[in-house]
Amino acid sequence: MAPRLAVAAAAVLLAGGCASLGSSPDATPAGSSSSTSPGTPSSSPTATGTPVDPDTPTSWGPTVGELEEAQELVSTWTPDRLAGQVIVGRYHGTDPSVPAQMVKDLHLAGMSVTADNVTDRDQVLATTQAIADASAADGRDFPPVIGVDQEGGYVSHLRGIATDFPHFQSAGLAVQSDARLGRRVTRAAALATGLELRDLGFTWVFAPVADVTIGAADPTIGARSPSMDPAVASQAVGAAIKGYDDAGIVSTVKHFPGHGTATQDSHDTLPVVDSTVAEIEEHDLPPFESAIKHAAPAVMLSHLDLTAIAPGIPASMAPPVYSMLRDDLGFEGVTITDSLGMGAVAGRPKPALQALEAGADLLLMPVDNATTHQIIVDAITSGEISRERVEEAAARVVAVQMWQARVAAQRPVPLDVVEKAQAASADLESAAY
Fold it and tell me: Measured between alpha carbons, how far is 395 from 75 in angstroms, rounded to an integer?
């Protein structure tokens, strides 16, 4: 693994006072052969003078043309609209009109739906449709982010509504038992999950978990992790990413750069991780590198205090951690924070703005949507944050939603999606045990 020079340089700056469905599971990742920068306009020549085909895929899903279209679109937006497009909101209760009104009034990118927001299938369908209608009424011709934690196992917010899948640990066990079969059933499970979620109106899934657990000392991830072995976890994560891509849903590999070694729960406090950079490279990064190789569209940043990289600052708000992800690992897609309502960060001043300045593209579930929106609007207007940074973030979000709409249109949900999901769940569990 190459030395993380950018991380080391960024850490020095920070310490000095810097603020702030059916193909083979081994198939080549879509878009992975492209050497074109996703930010290169289709009308601009490459280094060799050859114009870039707008249909050229980026390394994370959207085409160069889709990204360029998104960039042009957001460049015309007011600060009010621009600020909304980088927030995925939270809400309370089960009334579909509540999240819909927030999306329309604050121009939010979308909403995260949790177990507390759902009652039954019909109510979930009404909720996701209301959010989609509100986004369309707000003048957007691309779908909103409608996301849910549906990892399998106990982190499944649609329990009793969508098919129950085993913990993601099962994917690692299946890979460890028979690598080829394990990758196949893991990809099939992700495909079935994604299609069933799309059938319920979702466009994002906050999965797969790429954290490499350390076992009993890990209180947060545990069986959510595919394995204690980075190589096994890498295979399971890569297969899952391809399955979600096959389904036309935006997956979210998490929690960068790896929550599996934390011995405290970031839902309650900011865990301190004293791993060296070399230990993080060896133990935690391989599954994320696999995800990127397999065209992961989005990566979720953890709320961890990584003392070797950005001491005292949550990873989700630390520029050196984003530098590690983008400069060292080469990720070009959407970066999203873990929930900003978690105990690790909720008490910090302006956590959403800190994350956006550091490099986040999407701010997940701030404590107060309206207050956060206004903070970002004010920061853009005053110049506290550059408009360029916010446009960059919003354009990536819009582009990946254009990709999601295009792929979903090409891959309709089968009528027997529930039966297929139940079979895929049984196959994964059988391969694991």
Answer: 9
Is 338 catalytic? The answer is yes
Is 50 exceeded by the pLDDT of residue 41?
no
How far does CA 383 lie from the centroid of its chain?
28
Angle between helices 97-106 and 369-382 (to 10 degrees): 10
CB-CB contact of 361 with 38 (8 Å): no
Q: Is there a contact between 128 and 202 (Cβ–Cβ < 8 Å)? A: yes
Query: Can you tell me the distance from the alpha carbon of 109 to that of 168, in angstroms, rounded to the nearest whole number?
Result: 28
In a domain, 3, yes or no: no
Instruction: For 197-214, give one letter per residue: b (16+ CB within 10 A) or e.
Output: bbbbbbbbbbbbbbbbbb
DSSP structure string for 417-429: HHHHHHHHHHHHH
User: Is the pTM of the predicted complex or chain greater than 0.85?
Assistant: yes
Q: Is 115 helix (H, G, I), strand (E, B) or coil?
A: helix
Asked if 88 contacts 109 with a C-beta cutoff of 8 angstroms, the reply is yes
Cβ atoms within 10 Å, residue 56: 17
CB-based burial of residue 192 (10 Å sphere; 0-12 exposed, 13-18 middle, 19+ buried)?
buried
- Give the Å distances, CA to CA, from 377 to 82, 87, 247, 336: 8, 12, 35, 19
Of the pLDDT bands very low, low, confident and very high (cuts 50, 70, 90), residue 346 is confident
Q: Which of 95, 229, 267, 327 is catalytic?
A: 267
Domain membership flag for residue 196? yes
Give the count of domains, the chain.
1
Q: In this predicted model, what pLDDT tens digit does every residue of 164-214 receive, in sequence order?
A: 999 999 999 999 999 999 999 999 999 999 999 999 999 999 999 999 999
Does any domain span residue 41? no
CATH at residue 256: 3.20.20.300
Q: Which residue segment(s) compose the domain that 142 sits in?
A: 62-432
**Distance (Å, whole) CA 146 – CA 88:** 8
Residue 147 included in any domain: yes
Q: What is the rounded CA–CA span in Å between residue 430 and residue 425?
A: 9
What CA–CA distance (Å, rounded) separates 20 from 170? 39
What is the dihedral sign for C-alpha 7, 10, 16, 20? negative
Among candidate residues 246, 284, 338, 427, the one labeled active-site is 338
DSSP output for 301-316 = EP--EETTTSTTSBGG
Q: What distances in angstroms separate CA 259 from CA 140, 176, 221, 241, one per listed residue? A: 35, 21, 7, 19
